[in-house]
From TrEMBL:
One of its GO terms (molecular function) is hexosyltransferase activity. Residues 11-121 form the Glycosyltransferase 2-like domain. CDD domains: Glyco_tranf_GTA_type. This is Glycosyltransferase involved in cell wall biosynthesis. Coiled coil: none annotated. Transmembrane segments: none annotated. It comes from Algoriphagus boseongensis. Keywords: Transferase. The keyword Ribosomal protein does not apply.
Length: 280
């Protein structure tokens, strides 16, 4: 009997001493048999590193490293994506404050095995905020073979909780093709780079969404994405990056033109609507 596919996940850690133990325990409780977890502390000023190091020393499936200087969320994640993808069939990121359910890996591996063209298997999420928990299933761009329509739906990001895809199980052979990713040219340089990663995975294959809730995403006030400013400067830089990635992609010329045209019309419509609202 063949061994199950190798899966490697990673946890970028920064100032997480209050909750990192719960995250590592949730990963250790996975029912899947063939996985490893890379834990990297981004030179935290608190006790995160010592907590992670002690945990990893007690479980051979966990490997600990620490950056000698603070690289930030994106550079640390990019480094770990490449390490994980290089030695696995499937890989995933697990933010230091999110809790995967025990069947997270097993269910998503099964989805990708059944859908050999798929680039990402997306989990249902329980989105925990201070005042409520909302269950979400991002399906807007799932099961779409046409690359133009699929990437159009990803890029327009008009459905809540689209970021579940970034937290899904990725096909490693595609991950190795999408990095490195340039930071934004202006504004907050790491603003919504998870969307750029998602879009580039969409270039390579369809998406599949689990019908089960497999991850609890915890929204903290001090999280990286919570502090991004969704202003016109950052959004403009993001759109510039989207068009650049389409232009530099492996897609054929006709697909590039069709996708850029659809997104240009969408942008024009949105900008026109905002302009008209100013005079109401």
């Amino acid at each position: 009997m063949n061994a199950p596919p190798k899966v490697i996940g990673f946890v970028p850690v920064y100032k997480a001493e209050k909750f990192i133990s719960k995250t590592l325990e949730a990963l250790a409780a996975q029912t899947y048999s063939n996985f490893e977890i890379l834990v990297c502390d981004d030179n935290s000023p608190d006790n995160s590193a010592s907590i992670c190091k002690e945990f990893c020393s007690s479980d051979s499936r966990f490997k600990f490293t620490q950056n000698t200087e603070n690289l930030g969320w994106f550079k640390t994640s990019e480094m770990l994506w490449m390490q994980a993808a290089n030695k696995s069939k499937y890989c995933f990121t697990n933010p230091h404050d999110d809790l995967p359910y025990p069947n997270y890996i097993s269910e998503l591996v099964e989805l990708l095995e059944k859908n050999p063209k798929a680039s990402i298997a997306i989990p249902g999420m329980a989105n925990q905020r201070p005042d409520e928990t909302v269950v979400s299933f991002y399906e807007d761009a799932s099961d779409i073979e046409d690359v133009v329509e699929r990437c159009f739906r990803i890029a327009k990001k008009d459905k809540d909780y689209w970021w579940a895809a970034f937290h899904g199980l990725h096909r490693s052979e595609f991950v190795e093709k999408i990095y490195p990713i340039d930071k934004l040219r202006f504004g907050e340089s790491e603003f919504s780079l998870d969307l750029i990663s998602f879009l580039k995975m969409g270039f390579f294959g369809p998406l599949v969404t689990s019908n089960q809730v497999l991850l609890k995403k915890v929204y903290l006030e001090k999280s990286v994405s919570h502090n991004w400013r969704h202003n016109s400067k950052n959004k403009s830089a993001l759109w510039l990056a989207i068009f650049k990635e389409i232009e530099n992609s492996h897609l054929d010329l006709n697909s590039k033109i069709k996708l850029q045209k659809k997104l240009s019309l969408l942008l024009f419509s949105r900008l026109t609507g905002r302009f008209q609202n100013l005079f109401k």
